[in-house]
Design brief:
With about 700 residues, the protein is α+β, with helices and mostly antiparallel strands. It is built from 15 helices and 38 strands. Helix content is about 25%, strand content about 35%. The strands form 9 sheets. Strands 1, 2, 3, 5, 6 and 9 form a 6-stranded mixed sheet that branches. It has a 5-stranded antiparallel sheet with strand order 4-8-7-10-11, with no helix packed on it. Strands 21, 22, 23, 25 and 26 form a 5-stranded antiparallel sheet that branches. The chain starts with a strand and ends in a 19-residue tail after the last helix.
Length: about 700
């Protein structure tokens, strides 16, 4: 009696037991069908070309279920080979009336009803390193053709496979009327079968035992024999990756560190004799340590704006979805529903189609409702998180929708009587939503849509009077302290308040402005600059950089944009940060020698060189300018001498001193949170590693019409 694969897999489990298999004496492949059906096996192998899906009028024969059984093919009593028998269950899909709708006449329809139904069933078999396809022609008598009913099965004997191999089987019809069926199985090795005496390749196999040695894993071969051992990563789909291969002599012990275990780590061991069968097994598929190591190794990597890739040594049974990260550092809120989750494909570029870029959108990779990885992919390019409210519009009927606001406690329906922030502003948010003042981030006609509504104006309306009162009180206190000549040191930031055309300056620990000037060294360097700008914006600094002002640059030109930003920064007692890179140094040297430089697209270098240099030559740079270069990208001696009169820092190695200078010396190291400095350093290190490891070339450059530098 044949042993079904289901019963065999139950019998094997983690500790294989002896199983007896049916023996086939026929040396050639054969095919047979269940009662009432006729089968014919085409001679020889064929090409595995599934083709594209097609539609056909009237009933067609399609495979509905795929089964496998293990048998032995034995041309001689003691010379057997393991074989996989494939059973394909067939059914009829479609109705005769479809042939009438397709334009067939009544006589043609009647003739078709009296004829048998025929199909060509393709079986595709792959077990590394071999692949085969077989073609079965199946006929069903007219009296058995009942739409939607099973008509029987076809049996193919058989596909020869190696012991311990992993086999992949597909089945489909030609032409294809539906997606192919597929099945993947791991075959037992010599230890799990009552066939050691029948399969000659099993006679000289080394027996490998896997055991634990504390936290580590011990591989042991106790026999005195020569053997080969291979450790590899089994990628499905795709070829395996060899990790370690060696010819050894037993007895032998090999120790694997528990930190090297991953679910797809597999082992092959075989005798050095020619044509020896291999023992193949992957013992760590269910090991919790291996799964923890895999998630520790996995990395989300940014490729470009909106595109990302999950790198991992093994396939990951995980889902990926977008989430919404609020600026208050609360947990990222999942956007499922209405957005659907996607299966993760490792080591391949991924993207969410039809999603508009927003700095608050992040990517979450999760398993069984547990978030394993999270990355806010757009933050470095689009700036810091915005104080926007995300509205979720859901389809509730054919022409009806409901709107809720995503908050930390869930999605608050609008309007609502709850005491949450969104509920208090429910009417205003709905009015903005209906008047299209919110930005649509994603839309699906069947599921719903997502909208980002700015909250700045609501905060301004609610607190404007309170802020005015506080600022006036601060001004009074300032003048009082000034008269008493008892100003405290360290409060050196200026807050500008304009009331009916008058300007009042008050001393308060407010937000200082920082203007970043850099050259266009390519997309990798721009991401590094974006990371620095985003990190500084998390400090008490208002950051201006041309990467966040593309529209203004296109509308007004690089010179006008730079002049306005420099004027505003210096008038507000801010600081101008000059980012020196190999490109910036080269163009600066060119400017100092020739008084000209070739401009590039969105590149303010040609503009700020002519305007900044006089401040350095005339002694006006102290306290207004700071120079910066990144560790490993530039040597400080290459910075042109005229620019060295200002403080020059290397990041991230000199980050604490750099932040103190940016804050005017008013915030000591003891008052600056260490974790915040550490976050800035980590962000710069990550972006710097990405920049130095990439091979991106600078982008194409456009010509800009730069006039003379306006006087400040």
């Amino acid at each position: 009696m044949p042993v079904s694969w289901f019963l065999l897999s139950l019998a094997l489990g983690r500790s294989p037991v002896v199983v007896s298999l049916e023996r086939l004496m026929e040396p050639q492949d054969t095919a047979r069908c269940s009662l009432g059906l006729s089968c014919h096996l085409w001679d020889g192998d064929m090409l595995c070309l599934p083709g594209s899906l097609e539609s056909a009028p009237g009933p067609v024969l399609v495979p509905t279920h795929l089964q496998t059984e293990l048998v032995l093919r034995c041309p001689q009593e003691t010379d057997c080979a393991l074989c996989v028998r494939v059973v394909v269950h067939l059914a009829v899909h479609g109705h005769w009336e479809e042939a009438v709708e397709a334009g067939n006449s009544d006589s043609e329809l009647q003739e078709s009803r009296n004829a048998s139904l025929q199909a060509q069933v393709v079986l595709s078999f792959q077990a590394y390193p071999t692949a085969r396809c077989a073609l079965l022609e199946v006929r069903v008598p007219a009296d058995l053709v009942q739409p939607g009913q099973s008509v029987g099965s076809a049996v193919f004997d058989c596909f020869k496979a190696g012991l311990g191999a992993e086999v992949h089987i597909w089945s489909y019809t030609m032409p294809r009327y539906q997606k192919e069926l597929n099945l993947t199985q791991r075959l037992p090795d010599c230890r799990g079968l009552e066939v050691q005496d029948s399969i000659q390749s099993c006679w000289a196999l080394p027996w490998l035992n896997v055991s634990t040695d504390g936290d580590n894993v011990l591989l042991n071969v106790s026999e005195e024999q020569d053997f080969s051992l291979l450790l590899y990563l089994n990628h499905v789909p795709g070829p395996f990756k060899s990790l370690w291969y060696k010819n050894l002599t037993g007895p032998q012990n090999i120790t694997l560190n528990h930190t090297d275990l991953v679910p797809c780590l597999c082992i092959q061991v075989w005798s050095v004799e020619s044509d020896s069968e291999r023992i193949v097994f992957c013992p760590f598929k269910e090991d919790p340590r291996a799964h923890r190591n895999l998630w520790h190794i996995a990395r989300l990597r940014v490729l470009s704006l909106g595109r990302w890739q999950l790198d991992a040594p093994c396939s990951l049974p995980a889902k990926v979805a977008l989430c919404w990260q609020a600026p208050d550092q609360s947990p990222c809120q999942s956007l499922v529903p209405p957005m659907p989750q996607k299966n993760v494909t490792v080591n391949e570029p991924q993207e969410f189609l039809s999603v508009r870029d927003h700095p608050n959108l992040c990517v979450q990779v999760s398993t069984w409702e547990k978030v394993q990885l999270q990355e806010c992919l757009w933050a470095d390019s689009l700036g810091p998180f915005k104080d926007d409210m995300l509205l979720v519009e859901m389809k509730t009927g054919l022409n009806n929708t409901s709107v809720c606001a995503l908050e930390s406690g869930g999605c608050t329906p609008l309007p609502s009587l709850a005491s949450t922030r969104a509920a208090r502003l429910g009417e205003q948010l709905l009015q903005d939503f209906r008047s299209h003042q919110c930005m649509q981030l994603w839309n699906d006609d069947n599921l719903g849509s997502l909208w980002a509504c700015p909250m700045d104006k609501y905060i301004h309306r609610r607190w404007v009077l309170v802020w005015l009162a506080c600022l006036l009180l601060a001004a009074v206190l300032f003048f009082f302290l000034l008269l008493k000549k008892d100003r405290r040191k360290g409060e050196c930031f200026l807050v500008r308040l304009t009331l009916t055309g008058s300007t009042i300056l008050v001393a308060a620990p407010g937000t200082r402005t920082a203007l970043l000037l850099h050259s266009a060294d390519g997309a990798g360097y721009e991401r590094l600059v974006g990371a620095l700008a985003s990190a500084l914006s998390q400090m008490p600094l208002r950051v201006a950089v041309d990467l966040w002002s593309r529209r203004e640059l296109s509308a007004h030109g690089a010179l006008a944009w730079f002049h306005e930003q420099r004027r505003r920064t210096l008038q507000e007692d801010g600081v101008v940060i000059l980012l020196f890179s190999p490109e910036a140094v080269a163009q600066s040297q060119q400017w100092l020698q020739l008084q000209t430089v070739e401009p590039g697209p969105h590149d303010t270098l040609a503009a700020w060189l002519s305007c900044v240099l006089p401040d350095f030559l005339q002694g006006r740079a102290t306290g207004r300018y700071v120079g910066v270069y990144f560790d490993g990208l530039l040597h400080p001696d290459t910075v042109p001498a005229p620019f060295r009169v200002a403080p020059l820092f290397s990041l991230p190695s000199q980050l604490p001193a750099f932040l103190d200078v940016l804050q005017g010396g008013c915030s000591s190291a003891s008052r600056r949170p260490a974790d915040r400095v550490e976050r800035v350093a980590q962000a710069l290190l990550s972006a710097l590693d990405s920049c130095t490891s990439s091979s991106e070339a600078p982008g194409c450059r456009e010509e800009w019409d730069l006039g003379p530098c306006p006087a400040l």
